[in-house]
Amino acid sequence: MAKAAKAKSSVKKYYNYIGGEWVPSSSKDWFDNTNPADTNDVIGRFPQSNADDIRAAVSAAKNAATAWRRTPAPRRAEILFKLGEILRANKDQYSREMTREMGKVLKETGGDVQEAIDCTYFTAGEGRRLHGFTTPAEMPNKFAMCVRQPVGLCGLITPFNFPMAIPSWKLIPALVCGNTVVLKSGEDVPLSALNLVKACEQAGIPKGVVNLVNGDGGEIGPALVGHPDVRLISFTGSTATGKIIAEQCARDNKIVSLEMGGKNAIIVMDDADIDNAVEGSLWGAFGTSGQRCTASSRLVVHKKVYKKFVTQLSDRASRLRVGNGLDRRTEVGPVINQQAMDKIHGYIDIGRRHDGAKLATGGEILNKGSHKNGYFISPTVFADVSPKMRIGQEEIFGPVTSVIPFSTLDEAIEIVNGVAYGLSSAIYTQNVNHAFYAMQELYTGICYVNSATIGAEVHLPFGGTKGTGNGHREAGTQVLDIFSEWKSLYIDYSGRLQKAQIDEFEI
Q: Which residue in the list 293, 331, 395, 447 is annotated as catalytic?
């Protein structure tokens, strides 16, 4: 839910970007973007948009569609390369502003912006490829090939946890394929999306090709998803919302790409380098305060090393420095808002009171001293968790991880696979046979060996199985299959009618 507006006339106002112009919402309403580490820090005031603003943005994108589609792909790519240069030149500024509005520590927001830079450079290279293929035709004097064509007008709906990286995963491939877009950013992080769109403007992307509408998802999301001129919806967010979007898109025969939840696990074998496994588990569980769909929220540990692992992990987690992400000494920042903090703390209570798991460390809301005006939760480790406990099954999306013991690799794999999601998994082992067997049997879209479940790179496909999504992938060249459609072309130069599958000819 968008943050309520506060009457502070000194706060800077920002605007929607529609048809190449920065404009307020037709509602005339605003909401405040505040720092989750210090809610007294108001970053800016943004338009509380409505369905009329969505309609205006879609109209602008529709009007720009033909000219952008006809712009040669290499030329589109050149503009995107310039965009990458602008992002790189402003990385430090964007990183600080992202930490201020989203909370995660500076080194992580720097990585977020870098991922947008990497995505832009990588995808711009596809402007001189966008490969189709040729193939032999069945008939003589006939040529057959296929090419990509843009989908059309794309609606992009993005979350708070990667405020520039995730919008770039969607926006840049859509543009290189020749589509126009309307972007609805996460309402908790509007400035980072605005910075990305302003960089698009500076790079010379034509008016109307990229449009940005700010506001509450419950208000403007359905208007974007349901608009008849929007051909494709690309959504990253909760599984519950994703299912609603999928149902609407199915009724309207729209293309839909969903990237939703995760309940990821690291397997720690008895031959693992325990120190390395603990490091990876800390990073995977508490990076971005656990607010990643790839977070290592389950640690499945062999019984032979279980006690040692839990002791080391709990000790290290208890000493992580929690605070404002702008302080370079901080290791774990706040969670995004009050609603998230209440949900996470509710799961901690479930783990202790309902599931009966052992709270090894953490579990506290931090609200005193330097933490008093923010949404801080101490890094939390549950031990002696069984696979069917709620904290072992449901996505918590916060700095909480559960340690689950096992005896055999097959048992561990069954535990990892035994949830509704299938995004990311990992195994720590020195045994190459165990590593390759796990890579084969773990039913996830991403799998790591001797690393945490986070850290995907832009040149490989990103996505998951089961409840994590609907089978599409972002990043890599595979994302082009979302934002383009295939056209098969047949050229008959025989000078007569040839009927494929019917006519016969002598060899």
A: 293
Q: What single DSSP character describes residue 325?
A: T
The pLDDT value given to residue 504: 83
- Single out the catalytic residue among 187, 259, 331, 474: 259
Please enumerate in sequence order all residues whose Cβ is within 8 A of that of 78, keeping only pairs 6 or more positions apart, or say none.
124, 127
The question of whether 146 is a catalytic residue gets the answer: no
- Domain range enclosing 320: 265-449
d(CA 161, CA 164): 9
Cα–Cα dist 42/36, whole Å: 10
Same domain, 117 and 186: yes
Percent helix, percent strand, percent coil in the chain, to nearest 5: 40, 25, 40
* Overall domain count for the chain: 2
> Are residues 320 and 247 located together in one domain of the fold?
no
Write out pLDDT tens, residues 240-299: 999 999 999 999 999 999 999 999 999 999 999 999 999 999 999 999 999 999 999 999
Report the distance separating Cα 99 and Cα 122, nearest Å: 25
Of 168, 215, 210, 172, residue with least CA distance to 192: 168
Does residue 505 carry a pLDDT above 90? no
Q: Domain for residue 504, yes or no?
A: no
- Look up 293 and say whether it is catalytic: yes
3 has pLDDT over 70: no
CA-nearest of 71, 69, 53, 41 to 16 is 53
